[in-house]
Specification:
alpha/beta; Rossmann fold; eleven-stranded mixed beta sheet; 23% strand
Length: 380
């Protein structure tokens, strides 16, 4: 029994740390935006997400018990030093994450000037519903030319009682925040609505509300922080958050400077008529810079569909030729990437193909290159 208790403690701590460090992303996309969805994968991950809610106090108690048992094992030579240090580091990170969440500065958007250094949770009311977003404020922001970088999470199903479950894992040690520390930008993490069926994502009927939510956040920062540059507002997102980043690249092209969707796509084609949709943003000569990251082995967002949809974006949104491009190969850490840069059109459009990678492209690896693209494309 004692061994089972110890094993349970380690397993629970591992689950807690993974939930803090890795985004769960099982997107039910709009049919227009997706070609292939593996039902078995969705079911497996949803089973993990639908476990019984555990309180922060219970998690802290479990982690402390795991640390205690880990120390006993190490003292009795049951585990080598390398594994001991790795496990201890993971447990301490999980503990730090929970304590950070408990002690986080929580304010309403009307009090946005009261942001503190580090992580903040901000609430706002849109269409009578309370919405939430996290803000990471670095300690060394400059007095001018500060950027805003929005990062939209993926979607899935949840039984969590937390009103913003898919930004719960975002802490000060998150990959994008590490980049923000040295690059004069504020990172913003909006939370999508959890609907009556426990689904959470940007693909739902709350789309107009999501656009209003984005607009309110942007306006509030511009009204309250004189150092924020209205020409340096950027969006990125994963999975359905990537779809929403495409959406904003069209519907908020007057506000944002560049968009970087990850593991997402956007279909301009109406499948019923097999014609390009009649969208307002296609009927002007505005197109913002965009770089998309997609994996060749993605079983949720089909890579061939990504290429077709990017061709349509180039021709009908960017007013360029899908056949006029340059390709070159590069590496980002251990990722082998082919860069497809389109040569004409209204703006700079790139497709970063990540070879032998699936839906879960690592933000730890690509976050610096995402910022490199954004930073080189302020609004003209």
């Amino acid at each position: 029994m004692k061994f089972k208790a110890v094993l349970f403690s380690f397993l629970m701590a591992g689950l807690i740390f993974n939930a803090c460090a890795k985004e769960i992303d099982t997107t039910d996309y709009k049919k227009d935006e997706i070609s292939i969805i593996k039902k078995d994968e969705k079911k497996d991950i949803r089973k993990k997400e639908n476990h019984k809610e555990i309180s922060d106090e219970e998690k802290i108690q479990s982690i402390n018990e795991s640390i205690k048992n880990l120390n006993i094992r190490y003292q009795n030579n049951k585990i080598d030093e390398e594994n001991y240090n790795a496990k201890l580091n993971n447990l301490n990170l999980a503990l730090e994450s929970i304590n950070e969440r408990i002690n986080m500065n929580k304010i309403e958007i009307s009090n946005l000037k009261n942001l503190k250094i580090g992580m903040n949770m901000v609430s706002a009311t849109i269409d009578g519903q309370t919405r939430y977003f996290k803000v990471y404020k670095p300690s060394d922001l400059k007095e001018e030319n500060t950027s805003l970088v929005f990062r939209f999470h993926g979607s899935g199903s949840t039984n969590s009682v937390d009103p913003a479950p898919f930004i719960k894992h975002i802490t000060k040690s998150y990959s994008l925040n590490k980049v923000a520390d040295n690059n004069n930008f504020i990172a913003i993490y909006p939370a999508a609505i959890v609907d009556d069926n426990n689904n959470c994502g940007w693909y739902q009927k709350s789309q107009d509300s999501d656009l209003k939510f984005f607009d309110l956040i942007v306006k509030s920062f511009l009204d309250n922080f004189s150092n924020v540059d209205e020409n340096r507002i950027y969006v990125t997102g994963h999975s359905s958050g990537g779809i929403f980043s495409f959406e904003l690249a069209g519907k908020r092209e007057n506000i944002i400077a560049a968009s970087v969707p990850v593991s997402g796509q956007y279909n301009l084609m109406d499948k019923k008529t097999n014609e390009i949709k009649d969208l307002d943003f296609l009927n002007n000569n505005i197109s913002i810079p965009l770089r998309a990251y997609n994996g060749t082995l993605d079983s949720i967002v089909n890579y061939d569909a990504v290429k077709n949809n990017m061709d349509n974006w180039i021709e009908y949104q960017n007013k360029g030729s899908k056949d006029n491009y340059k390709e070159n190969n590069t590496k980002i850490e251990d990722y082998n990437i082919t860069i497809k840069s389109y040569e004409d059109g209204l703006s700079d459009i790139q497709l970063y193909t990540v070879h032998d990678e699936g839906h879960g492209i690592s933000w730890d690896k690509i976050a610096p290159s995402i910022w490199e693209f954004m930073n080189s494309h302020p609004k003209k």
